[in-house]
């Protein structure tokens, strides 16, 4: 792998940047691998990378039906935070946060991780009580957090309407300074390049059409480019996980919904942090290009169409303009939808299945991007050892039958 | 934007008047005390999540406030059928595929739908 550095940039400038090597190979599928990862999004690529780097499993294929990072990885609003309420999820997302902090160096790829802080705004007394409870829980778990009052919020975000005249006056917020944003495409590309350098085969335009299962043990997958064998298969297919599970005869407690996001025309720097509100239901940050990146809740109905309804866009922008009247005349540039696999308790599924050797990493719903490095790391550990990593273990699919749910719905201050 | 025919009001109204309420035709176990943890978990949490024809419960929230069922395609978002509570769908995943194959059946489907299905407008 050609290492990226400031010196390299200068060197390549001399040849007009025409001699950069390709970031990853485009290999032909081998007959068999030790591990197959289905799904070449951020989580799948991260899993492949950590398998090769941390656990010495380099005979790995990532099978992607489209192109790398073409699904939710490139469709989210890039927010990274770890201020979750329950111990299990806090451990998972904080594990990811710690990996985020060294990620650009680790994979020699600038993922533009910017710890500009995240505000989760409260508008009611109950919001503030929940915020206090969550921040206390976070601190006990070693996660940074502060409770701010309306004045504190106003000081951080001068352009926000924190007056008493607002329809839903801002009463305060939780503030996680280590949270922030990262460039989502770069995360997929960086992991892909680093995994490829360690010998992982990235098979694009290759669609898994079925699983090869014998006596309850998986031994490969059918694809449109022929059969590929492996005794361990990790399925990391987000919105399509239910469809994949059905091929293997497994039922998942997931429902796939469209989740929309939109960006405005680029404007000068005006918002240097991330603002999320559960109550008026919207979140916003400003990208390095200058466009406002805006998102909110899912469309309520099931869908696989990677697009949503206009009423949802309208509600989202109503919330943003309610908090930021200054943005009322900003024009929106683009709007799109991704398909999120939502779980009844708003927590992911990292689990073995009744098919031996077949693992699922799914159900991240609306909040998977922030967990990309942590999810990949613990899932890789689980695939390599055949035993779920202690951080991943509580997220077993069994919890929906035992009742040991991790109920982050609403608790995480997130706009679900 | 959906344009949904409410079978109780008897007219098409815009999506914003309605709320989706998840999968239709889920019946509560007759004797909850007798169900196993697995069956109870399945009833509470496990849903069909098809890429294709799906039967859903909707409520006309700011209209007549009645619940009814919609059969909808989850990729094209086309509304295939609307029917009242207690009724069974005439279009299902199985016969939808068959109808797509046969042109004559297709024509029939269009004719039967024409009266109350508009589907996706936007």
TrEMBL record, chain A:
The keyword Flavoprotein applies. InterPro entries: FAD-dep_OxRdtase (IPR006076), FAD/NAD-bd_sf (IPR036188), Rhodanese-like_dom (IPR001763), SoxB (IPR006278). It is found in: Cytoplasm. It is an enzyme of class 1 (oxidoreductase). One of its GO terms (biological process) is tetrahydrofolate metabolic process. It catalyses: sarcosine + (6S)-5,6,7,8-tetrahydrofolate + O2 = (6R)-5,10-methylene-5,6,7,8-tetrahydrofolate + glycine + H2O2; sarcosine + O2 + H2O = formaldehyde + glycine + H2O2. Belongs to the SoxB family. This is Sarcosine oxidase subunit beta.
From TrEMBL, chain B:
Residues 17-36, 97-122 are annotated as: Disordered. InterPro entries: SoxD, SoxD_sf. It holds the Pfam family SoxD. It comes from the Bacteria. One of its GO terms (molecular function) is sarcosine oxidase activity. Gene3D superfamilies: Folate-binding superfamily. GO terms for biological process: tetrahydrofolate metabolic process. Residues 105-122 have a biased composition (Basic and acidic residues). This is Sarcosine oxidase subunit delta. It comes from Onishia taeanensis.
């Amino acid at each position: 792998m050609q290492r990226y550095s400031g010196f390299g940039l200068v060197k390549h400038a001399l040849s007009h940047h025409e001699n950069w090597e390709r970031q990853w190979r485009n290999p032909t599928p081998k007959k068999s691998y030790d591990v197959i990862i289905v799904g070449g999004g951020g989580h799948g690529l991260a899993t492949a990378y950590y398998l090769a780097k941390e656990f010495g499993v380099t005979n790995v294929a990532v099978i992607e039906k489209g192109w790398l990072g073409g699904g939710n990885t490139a469709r989210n609003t890039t927010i990274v935070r770890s201020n979750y309420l329950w111990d299990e999820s806090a451990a998972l997302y904080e594990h990811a946060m710690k990996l985020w902090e060294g990620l650009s160096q680790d994979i020699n790829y600038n993922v533009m991780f910017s710890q500009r802080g995240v505000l989760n705004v409260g508008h009611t007394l109950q919001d503030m009580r929940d915020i206090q409870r969550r921040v206390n829980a976070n601190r006990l778990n070693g996660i940074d957090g502060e409770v701010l009052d309306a004045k504190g919020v106003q000081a951080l975000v001068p352009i926000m309407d924190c007056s008493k005249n607002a329809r839903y006056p801002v009463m305060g917020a939780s503030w996680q300074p280590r949270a922030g944003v990262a460039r989502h495409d770069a995360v997929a590309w960086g992991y892909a390049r680093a995994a490829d350098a360690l010998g992982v085969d990235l098979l694009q335009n290759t669609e898994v059409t079925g699983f090869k299962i014998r006596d309850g043990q998986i031994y490969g997958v059918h694809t449109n480019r022929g059969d590929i064998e492996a005794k361990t298969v990790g399925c990391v297919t987000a919105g399509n996980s239910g469809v994949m599970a059905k091929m293997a005869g497994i039922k998942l407690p997931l429902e796939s919904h469209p989740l929309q996001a939109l960006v405005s025309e680029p404007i000068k720097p005006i918002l240097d942090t991330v603002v999320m509100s559960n109550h008026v239901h919207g979140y916003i940050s400003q990208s390095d290009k200058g466009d406002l990146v805006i998102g909110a809740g899912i469309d309520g109905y099931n869908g696989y169409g990677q697009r949503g309804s206009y009423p949802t866009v309208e509600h989202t922008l109503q919330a943003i303009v309610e908090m930021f009247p200054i943005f009322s005349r900003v024009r929106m540039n683009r709007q799109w939808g991704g398909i999120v696999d939502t779980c009844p308790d708003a927590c992911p599924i990292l689990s073995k299945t009744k098919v031996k050797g077949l693992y699922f990493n799914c159900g991240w719903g609306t909040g998977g991007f922030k967990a990309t490095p942590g999810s990949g790391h613990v899932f890789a550990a689980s695939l390599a050892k055949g035993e779920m990593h202690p951080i991943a273990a509580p997220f077993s699919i069994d919890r929906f039958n035992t009742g040991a749910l991790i109920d982050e719905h609403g608790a995480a201050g997130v706009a679900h | 934007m959906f344009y949904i025919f409410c079978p109780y009001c008897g007219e098409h109204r815009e999506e914003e008047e309605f709320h989706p309420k998840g999968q239709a035709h889920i019946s509560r176990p007759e004797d909850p005390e007798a169900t196993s943890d697995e069956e109870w978990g399945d009833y509470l949490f496990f849903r069909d999540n098809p890429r294709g024809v799906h039967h859903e419960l909707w409520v006309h929230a700011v209209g007549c406030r009645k619940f009814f069922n919609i059969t909808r395609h989850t990729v094209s978002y086309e509304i295939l059928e609307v029917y009242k509570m207690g009724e069974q769908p005439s279009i299902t995943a199985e016969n939808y595929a068959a109808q797509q194959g046969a042109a004559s059946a297709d024509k029939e489907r269009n004719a039967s739908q024409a009266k109350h299905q508009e589907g996706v407008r936007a």
